[in-house]
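RECORD TYPE: inverse folding
INPUT: structure tokens
STRUCTURE:
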């Protein structure tokens, strides 16, 4: 049996295509509704409205090697006016302002938005997605380090280690439900 020659291809998508994909999948109205439900709306007019911060958090995962300010600038330039509603002379906020905006948003809003939007996407034509008429799903888990703080240690704890020693960081245990045909994470649980 001969193996077929293959090479790994790293796809490079233009920012415009990625921003269009975000706008297509996540409508501004769903974000606004989620922010209202979680109490994450701003009480006063800010340079970084909560809806834009949601898009920034998503975009930061797509362009993880870029500076937050650059990601935000590209995001504002690429999103439609329905999303941003920012003035003509908008200036990119400092990195500390961006961090504060992310803290104001909190994780509850992003978690709620994830559960509203994410769903299996495979069709009958997707290779490996169905077996005997049933959707093939997989459960996987991973462990992530979190900053070594008393609060994180209290919530997540340290892994076991030799007697008299302690691991360097508290660990978050993450269990994922994944659609096998698309490799899409459709649910997640933090343990």
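DESIGNED SEQUENCE:
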């Amino acid at each position: 049996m001969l193996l077929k020659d293959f090479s790994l291809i790293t796809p490079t998508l233009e920012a415009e295509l990625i921003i269009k994909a975000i706008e297509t999948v996540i409508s501004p109205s769903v974000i606004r509704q989620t922010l209202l439900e979680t109490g994450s709306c701003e009480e006063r007019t800010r340079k970084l409205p909560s809806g834009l911060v949601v898009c920034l958090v998503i975009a930061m995962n797509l362009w993880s090697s870029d500076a937050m300010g650059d990601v935000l600038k590209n995001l504002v330039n690429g999103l439609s006016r329905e999303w941003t509603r920012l003035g003509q002379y908008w200036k990119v906020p400092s990195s500390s302002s961006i961090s504060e905006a992310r803290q104001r948003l909190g994780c509850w809003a992003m978690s709620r938005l994830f559960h509203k939007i994410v769903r299996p996407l495979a069709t009958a034509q997707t290779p490996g997605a169905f077996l005997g008429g049933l959707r093939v799903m997989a459960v996987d888990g991973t462990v992530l380090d979190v900053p070594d703080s008393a609060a994180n240690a209290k919530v997540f704890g340290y892994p076991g280690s030799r007697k008299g020693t302690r691991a360097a960081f508290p660990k978050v245990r993450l269990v994922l439900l994944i659609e096998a045909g698309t490799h899409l994470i459709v649910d997640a649980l933090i343990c």
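NOTES: The radius of gyration is 20 Å.
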